[in-house]
């Protein structure tokens, strides 16, 4: 590498950020060079997103200096950063649901011809970006109704059209399966070869080892360690992130009983997303569901929870047909779903923790039809303590880290003492420390005799927590594997069948 090529395109020196008396970033120094991927790691609340937002112009640093391509750099807003050649894909989807895919990709920078939006050019360029990611969807289609994974790929396609010299990718694969992730990695390699610098934020440490050139670890607003290579044992990385030794990630999976709690008989979707699915879940069993994105996993568990319609089949609980017509019907029978998108489907984020927990338990906390603030607070505090939520009942859910938001969603349903708990992507976008505590909750439910279903795109996760795994492919049930039979190869063979 030449001296010129080794010069950073972006340099940060002593970057600090405070919100009133709360200090979020403590003197961060960071260099990013052209054509390299720097993994930025840390638990939720470590300061990764705040630092990324400073670089991308979403927030301004309280003090410190940045240089971009050798010149002073202090973007007043994201538009200024984009104009300078710095783009960011946020962890939370920012698409406008009622606009088309192409309109979302080019929002705020529509190509024009003769003073008017050139829709042909816009859709052609959008189609090209989508094809690069293997996404064969008409660019004129509205975003509303697309899967979370496809929306994430559209966000990535949007970034690819920026022609940025630095891309910040915040949890870009959180909603993606293995095939989509590999497509993204191929695009990252191409961008690297073109001299684009990339800051890559992810909690999936195995993929960091695949894609990163260097690793920077943050903890409590500080840069605590930097590795010059990604060829580092995962345990070493995790211990740097959490500041302590981690003896284990996955808990011991309890042995289920022979008693069948939930039985699914020949279930088919009225929307065509899955057909003729049959399985049983025993008392105290953790039943995993794996498969590639689009296999019908989420649609299946939504149907079991009464959220999506079915065309045929039965759902039995303890031998009784309870095939639900609505989520309320399922909840009343003791079947609850922790959905894949906690912010859109699991929480009302601008309401308090207490209110969110209370909404799912009004029948428990009301007295003669009346609900008092004190009763909501007391009930919430009891469950906050029980499930280890780091927050107060009167605190807005939006102020919590991803891991604690997920614990609130789990707490509001588990406080109903359900008989079947379904968790769809339970640790999506959650740091390694919070993941471990959620796995403990899942194992604890099984130990108490609850039937648990876990849907996950993270193969290591579904292998680590499940007693048995059902694999889905193209809406069909490809097979069910015991814990002894299940491994990376056997699951992927069925998922691609």
Which ranges are low-confidence, i.e. pLDDT below 50, for 5 or more consecutive residues? 1-5
Name the CATH superfamily assignment of the largest domain: P-loop containing nucleotide triphosphate hydrolases
What is the CATH-assigned architecture of the largest domain?
3-Layer(aba) Sandwich
Name the CATH class of the largest domain: Alpha Beta
Rg, Å, rounded: 23 Å
Shape: globular
Terminal CA distance: 44 Å
Q: How many structural domains does the protein architecture include?
A: 2
Main sheet characteristics: 6 strands, mixed
Examine the coordinates and then state which fold CATH places here, giving the name of the CATH topology of the largest domain: Rossmann fold
Helix fraction, binned, reads: 25-40%
> What's the rounded overall pLDDT mean?
87
Number of strands: 22
* Count of alpha and pi helical runs: 19
What structural class do helix, strand and pairing data support?
Answer: alpha/beta
Fraction in beta strands: 25-35%
- How are the strands of the biggest sheet laid out side by side? 6-9-10-3-11-12
Assembly category: single chain
Protein name: Sugar ABC transporter ATP-binding protein
Keywords: ATP-binding, Cell membrane, Membrane, Nucleotide-binding, Repeat, Sugar transport, Translocase, Transport
GO molecular function: ATP binding
InterPro entries: AAA+_ATPase (IPR003593), ABC_carbohydrate_import_ATPase (IPR050107), ABC_transporter-like_ATP-bd (IPR003439), ABC_transporter-like_CS (IPR017871), P-loop_NTPase (IPR027417)
